Amino acid sequence: MALAAARRLLLHAGSRLGRREAVDGARRFANKRVLVETEGPAVMKLRNPPVNSLSLECLTEFTISLEKLENDKSIRGVILTSECPGIFSAGLDLLEMYGRNPAHYAEYWKNVQELWLRLYTSNMILVSAINGASPAGGCLLALCCDYRVMADNPKYTIGLNESLLGIVAPFWFKDMYVNTIGHREAERALQLGTLFSPAEALKVGVVDEVVPEDQVHSKARSVMTKWLAIPDHSRQLTKNMMRKATADNLIKQREADIQNFTSFISKDSIQKSLHMYLEKLKQKKG
Ligand SMILES: CC/C=C\C/C=C\CCC/C=C/CC(=O)SCCNC(=O)CCNC(=O)[C@H](O)C(C)(C)COP(=O)(O)OP(=O)(O)OC[C@H]1O[C@@H](n2cnc3c(N)ncnc32)[C@H](O)[C@@H]1OP(=O)(O)O
C-alpha cells in the first residue's frame, strides 16, 4: 500500500518535472535518483550516490522512468549509464536485504522482478555505457541491454558475484547469464562469483566492446545510431523471439520466486553472511 502511494506520488512529481523542464527547452525529466535526457538519443543516468545501489526508492524511480520512456512513441532507444564516478551500479541494496522483515523482503523482491521484466523485455533498444564497477545487480542491469560498451579501466569489474556474498543468484539471473555467455562459462562464473576485468569480460562475452574511458559515451551513441537504422518491427519481433521464454519462465512463477527469496534471505545463516559482507565493506575503509 505504502509503495503504491509512493509510486503515484513519484509519477505525479515526475510528470510535473517533465513538463517544467520541457518548458525550459531542455528535453529531460528527472526523479531524485534517475535522470533522463531525451535530446538526441535518450540517456538514462543512475545517480544514487555513493554507489548507485538499487534501493527500493531507486528501483521504483527507475521503473517509472522506463515506463515513461516506453510510453513515448518518439523514443526508440535508451543509453543506460551512471552519474556516480567510477561506479555503474553496486547492484541490489544490501540494506534492503539485511535486518528487515519478511513483508519488506517480499515487497523489495517484487520490485526487483518488475524492473528486470521491464528492462529485459523492453521494445526499445537498450545500450549500456558501463562507466564503472558493475557487480551483481549492476551486471544484471547491463545484461538486460541489447549491447554493452565498457570503459577500459582495470579497476572496474563486472559479473554476478553473489556466491562470494554467501547468497545464490536466482534462476532468472542465471538464465540471462547463460543466454549471454553460454552454459559452461556461466556455470564457472556463477560458482566462483567471478568479477571480470573489462578485458576478461570482453573475452568471455559479458560485454560486447571495451573502449577507452573517455569514449564510452560516444561509442554507445554510435552503437545506438547503428541499431536505430534497423526497422523497429523486425528488430522487436526478433528480440521478443530471443527473450520471451526466459521472461515467461519468471512470469509463470513470480509468486513462488518471491516466497523463495523471502524465506532464503530471512534465514539466520544468510543474514549472518550478509552481516559479515557488510562489515568487510566497512573495514575496507579503515
Ligand atoms: C535458493 C535461492 C533462492 C532465491 C534467491 C535468493 C537470493 C538472493 C539473491 C539476491 C541477489 C542479489 C544481487 C545483488 O546485487 S547483491 C549486491 C552485490 N553487490 C556487491 O557485492 C557490491 C558491493 N560493493 C562493492 O564491492 C563496492 O562498494 C564497490 C566496488 C561497488 C564500490 O567501491 P568503493 O570503494 O567506491 O565504495 P565502498 O567504500 O565500498 O562503498 C561506499 C558505501 O556504499 C556501501 N555499499 C556498497 N555496495 C553496497 C550495496 N550493494 N548495497 C548497499 N550499500 C552498499 C558501502 O557499504 C559503503 O557504505 P559506508 O561504509 O559508507 O556506510
Automatic annotation (TrEMBL):
Molecular functions per Gene Ontology: delta(3)-delta(2)-enoyl-CoA isomerase activity
Subunit record text: Homotrimer.
Subcellular location: Mitochondrion matrix
TM helices/strands, residue ranges: none
Alphabetical keyword list: Acetylation, Fatty acid metabolism, Isomerase, Lipid metabolism, Mitochondrion, Transit peptide
Main location, first listed in the record: mitochondrion
GO CC terms in record: mitochondrial matrix
Lineage, broadest ranks: Eukaryota, Metazoa, Chordata, Craniata, Vertebrata
CDD domains: crotonase-like (cd06558)
One annotated GO biological process: fatty acid metabolic process
Full protein name: Enoyl-CoA delta isomerase 1, mitochondrial
Pfam families: ECH_1
Reported function: Key enzyme of fatty acid beta-oxidation. Able to isomerize both 3-cis (3Z) and 3-trans (3E) double bonds into the 2-trans (2E) form in a range of enoyl-CoA species, with a preference for (3Z)-enoyl-CoAs over (3E)-enoyl-CoAs. The catalytic efficiency of this enzyme is not affected by the fatty acyl chain length.
Pathway: Lipid metabolism; fatty acid beta-oxidation
Family: Belongs to the enoyl-CoA hydratase/isomerase family.
Reaction(s) the record says it catalyses: (3Z)-decenoyl-CoA = (2E)-decenoyl-CoA; (3Z)-dodecenoyl-CoA = (2E)-dodecenoyl-CoA; a (3E)-enoyl-CoA = a 4-saturated (2E)-enoyl-CoA; (3Z)-hexenoyl-CoA = (2E)-hexenoyl-CoA
Enzyme Commission code: 5.3.3.8
